[in-house]
Amino acid sequence: MLETAAIFEQIVRSRRSMRVYDNKTEYNPEIVKKSLELALLSPNSSNMQLWEFYRIRSEAAKKEMAHNCLDQSAVETASEIVVIVARPDKYKESIQFNLETIDHPENFESDKSKKRRKEYFGKIMPLFYAYDRFFILSILKTVFVFFVGMKRPIVREVTRINKKVTIHKSVALAAQTFMLALKSQGFDSCPIEGFDSKRIKKQLSLPRRAEINMVISVGKGTEKGIFYIQRRYPYQEVVFEK
Ligand SMILES: Cc1cc2nc3c(=O)[nH]c(=O)nc-3n(C[C@H](O)[C@H](O)[C@H](O)COP(=O)(O)O)c2cc1C
């Protein structure tokens, strides 16, 4: 086995959701910074990066956040709390970022690929990410893909709800990279979705269309912080070969 594979396996196997942290041992906030830097390298749909990360570090803000996370011990005892936010409303900036990347002097892409991707970011992405308050665009797009799909394979997930899933999938991948990076540096975490999103958005002064993807508490783990055994479905029950 490669040395890197053994290290990776050890990181994955030792990560557990931590519900009680030891806040007596010294905590180094630089580890969270490093882990977030690595999280930013996560794969994400069309490189749109519709994510933001809010570090909650002051005692008062942590207390308020713990209450907004339903007073869970995983948050109450954390050294730091990171709120992972999806920003569907920032899609125009992301499209611009990607168009600029295509023209970046260091971009080694072929001219043919550049042309194709400029069309993709210039035409398809604005249509997919457009704000669709009354679901009208979603219906039009669904009808369109239904007819095109009779002739050739096409992406079927084009509605407003599908867009939410697309964005949150990518954001959650960043969350996972973040948690594994923390573990690789000897820190523990707990992903949280038991929270009041409205109150968290208010606490962070986020706009209406921002969405809370996950809250992740961070700290040095304790033995009593692991509440139960880790049990998963066996491989043969969930992995299929065709
Ligand atoms: C999206 C998501 C939301 C979660 N929300 C909570 C939560 O609100 N509170 C909590 O204690 N654990 C939460 N968990 C942790 C899971 O309960 C935990 O990952 C699962 O039981 C497996 O345990 P393990 O992480 O130790 O392997 C969440 C996990 C995920 C991925």
Question: Which features does this protein show?
Answer:
NADH Oxidase, 10 helices, alpha+beta, binds flavin mononucleotide, four-stranded antiparallel sheet, 242 residues
Summarize this entry quickly.
This protein has 242 residues and is of the alpha+beta class.
Q: Would you mind describing this structure in some detail?
A:
This protein has helices at residues 3-14, 29-39, 59-68, 73-76, 91-102, 111-129, 136-148, 160-184, 197-203, 235-238, and strands spanning 51-56, 80-86, 188-192, 211-219. It starts with a helix and ends with a helix. Helix 2 packs across helix 8 and helix 5 runs antiparallel to helix 6. The protein has a domain at 16-90 and 163-226: NADH Oxidase. With 242 residues, the protein is of the alpha+beta class. It is globular, with a radius of gyration of 21 Å. The chain binds flavin mononucleotide (FMN).
- Give the total of beta strands: 4
Helix and strand content put the structural class at: alpha+beta
**First and last CA, distance:** 27 Å
Cα Rg:
21 Å
Proper CATH architecture of the domain at 16-90 and 163-226 = 3-Layer(aba) Sandwich
Backbone shape: globular
State the helix count: 10
Strand order of the largest sheet: 1-2-4-3
CATH topology of the domain at 16-90 and 163-226: NADH Oxidase
Bound molecules: flavin mononucleotide
CATH class of the domain at 16-90 and 163-226: Alpha Beta
Largest sheet: 4 strands, antiparallel
Query: How do the helices and strands follow one another from N- to C-terminus?
Result: HHEHHEHHHHEHEH
Q: Spell out the CATH superfamily of the domain at 16-90 and 163-226.
A: NADH Oxidase
Mean pLDDT: 97
* Low-pLDDT runs: none
Strand content is 5-15%
Query: How much helical structure, as a percent, in the residues?
Result: 40-55%
